[in-house]
Amino acid sequence: MKPFVQKLDELTPEMVALVDRVVEEHQNDPTQLVGILLDIQDGVERHYIPEPVAYYLSQRLSIRVTQIYDVVTFYSMLYDKPRAKYTLEVCNSAPCRVKDSDTLVETLKRLLNLEVGEVTYDGRFCIEKVPCFGACDVSPAVRVNGAVYGHLDSEERVLDMLRQLD
Amino acid sequence: MSENMIHLTINHMPVEVPAGTRIIEAAHSIGIDIPHLCYHPDQSIKAHCRMCMVEVTGQRKLLAACSTLVWEGMEVITDSKRVYDAQVGVLDLILADHHQDCLACARNNNCDLQNLCRRFNRLKPDLPDVSSKERPRLDNPSIVRDPTKCVKCGRCVKVCTEVQGIGALSFTGRSAACKVTTAFDLPMNETDCVLCGQCTLVCPVGALTEVDHTSHVRHALHDPTKHVVVQVAPSVRVALGDDFGMEPGALVTGKMVTALKMIGFEKVFDTNFSADLTIMEEGSELLDRIKNGGCLPMITSCSPGWVNFMEKHHPEMIPHLSTAKSPQGMFGAVLKTYYAQRMGWDPKDIVSVSVMPCTAKKFEATRPELGRNGYQDVDVVLTTRELAKLIRYEGLDLKRLPESEFDAPLGTGSGAGAIFGNTGGVMEAALRTAYELYTGKELPRLEFEAVRGEVGGIREATIDLGGTSLKVAVANGLKNAEEVIRRVESGEADYLFIEIMACPGGCIGGGGQPIGTNNAKRQARIKALYALDKSLPLRKSHENPDIKTIYEEFFDHPLSHKAHELLHTTYAARPKRYDFTPYLHGTQK
Ligand code: SF4
Ligand code: SF4
Ligand code: SF4
Ligand code: FES
Ligand code: FES
Known about the structure:
The complex is a heterodimer.
Chain A: H1 13-25, H2 33-43, H3 51-61, H4 65-74, E1 86-91, H5 94-98, H6 101-112, E2 125-130, E3 142-144, E4 147-149, H7 155-164
Parallel strand pairs in A: 1-2
Antiparallel strand pairs in A: 1-3, 3-4
Helix pairs in contact in A: 1-2, 1-3, 3-4
Chain B: E1 5-10, E2 13-18, H1 23-29, E3 53-56, E4 63-64, E5 75-77, H2 81-96, H3 112-120, E6 143-145, H4 155-163, E7 169-172, E8 179-182, H5 198-202, E9 208-210, H6 214-221, E10 227-232, H7 253-263, E11 267-270, H8 271-292, E12 298-299, H9 304-313, H10 327-343, E13 350-356, H11 360-365, E14 371-372, E15 375-376, E16 380-383, H12 384-394, H13 415-418, H14 425-439, E17 458-465, E18 468-476, H15 478-489, E19 497-501, H16 519-535, H17 545-555, H18 561-567, H19 581-584
Parallel strand pairs in B: 1-5, 10-11, 10-13, 12-19, 13-16, 18-19
Antiparallel strand pairs in B: 1-2, 3-4, 3-5, 6-9, 7-8, 14-15, 17-18
Helix pairs in contact in B: 8-10, 8-14
Bound molecules: iron/sulfur cluster (SF4) (3 copies) and FE2/S2 (inorganic) cluster (2 copies).
One iron/sulfur cluster (SF4) binds at residues 98, 100-102, 105, 107-108, 111, 113-114, 149, 205-206 of chain B.
């Protein structure tokens, strides 16, 4: 496929650098598409695959953009729509529920004025309930973009955690 | 030979088929149609829909007849209770997720899903309706998508990817969210799609259809101030009969003309005439390019899906495209200038209708280059399928109609014009004329077998133009076209002239032809057009008397100033959604 001919891109130089870096890390290998997309998604602030990024990636890898879109929409860990910058994942498996993660969810909802699954108007926060992520020893806990914050058993600690995120 | 034959029974009937046959085909060979939706005889196996399940003695599970190869001694049952229950189960689930509005649907009475419902007597499924409530997508002049009708069979994905090499459509999402759509759900024309319509031809239901323009025609016909004039493309006459239950490849020219007159068109003209005109211009252009060092190889430009492909995917190759308009475009221009003058009509009072085998022609007619002074040269494009609708509206039985002739003077076409409708035909027509114009001698033999051929594939030939040899190539289907371009760009091939048609088999297999068009029917239509050519006294474009007259009276000579103004056009690289050229520069391996 040839380079596209006309403009209309919201592709920022940072995104180009990100895609280029991730593609290099995966040896320009289109068969590693899922890994490439996960890595790109990690690097995008709102943790999704923006349309221009998908188009750019399709050209870098010489594959069809429909193939990328197919993969992005197939896997539930990949997103084609913007998500929160910080998704607060609260575990709702039994051990955490026993340590009262329900109260943690209620506290987060109250502090952020947000329902589970919604995103704050500025796109920063979202609360999600997820199954065990192995932080049972420090529960109740929240996982944000891979980092775990444990012992969130008071409003103060929760506020503290939120302040650390920006 | 017999060791490669497999013996099995289907519903206790003995069958003998070659090894490698699938159950569905073995059943077909003895007249049993196993229910199916995703299976298509011209496509590789998908096995998505599970409608085709059958019972095989000794097998615990039901097997998909479309994907299972026969084996020696196999016993197949297609109508047991288990099979019936499974098939009805699948059908009911499809119906629960299907927006059932047959009465308002483009495929009413011509729909695989409807046929299955009739066959299984499933009128009101017991399951609740969980179909999506999306609106149909009418976002381009050629094709409508109605996702609420899609049964996710994947036939469109296959044809677009494997035959056309485009891949504009794909499966997205998973499970209940599974949809067949474009990348990021964009309007078709903003994707890699070239509007060829091959997807509308294979879709078993009303999820992909042509944009219907029959009501535009009817309004025009009801308006007494308008002159409503129609042109009919070469390939329509060997395909229209299909829609009325006639033999594949049946030649229905005379009956079709009668039908068009009865529908009420004031003049019924033949696009074969302007195909001859195209040959005069294109053939002269080729000789001119060869003599004067123009851009070679020259590539034909009469297939609008192909032109879209060049503008979207290979803008760097645009100088190779012949500047000659397509026959549809030339006809429109001649109609609203030369003919309007002759008749004393104001071009604004003419409604120029064309009947084409093609959805991309609908788009072509909207190109601003194909019009002047605020009007378009072609106002409405109907596909062969839409013409069949108009004929049905009139209540005509095509088979029983008497024959009539096209109107003069834009109704005379040569055999060369007729074979424009199939792959290799434009090449052959051009060679007949180019040879005689170039050498000044009569062509000893009119048939150029080397460029004739089948659906799909690429053909190469070297033609002797009285001492000068001319290397040519012919391709149909855009995947093959891409390969021809690769050969040219890599310097591997040194063609001087290339014919490309976007659709498999050429226009006779176009995206606007009757539903049910498959490669076997395409082959029959190709044969019919060559037979028609052979039967005509007039077989060379430059000998068409009406063509001679129009040059004497109007255009003077091919490539004249006036011809350039009216019969030639320009192309431009098409805006893509994103241009990453600056970023890609230097980063590609
Ligand atoms: S696609 Fe077929 S079954 Fe569905 S509404 Fe149209 S005609 Fe009826
Ligand atoms: S019109 Fe042609 S290019 Fe467009 S989606 Fe259909 S098959 Fe593909
Ligand atoms: S649009 Fe038609 S051909 Fe494509 S998957 Fe849906 S039903 Fe099948
Ligand atoms: S149960 Fe909650 S982190 Fe393991
Ligand atoms: S026809 Fe066999 S699974 Fe669709």
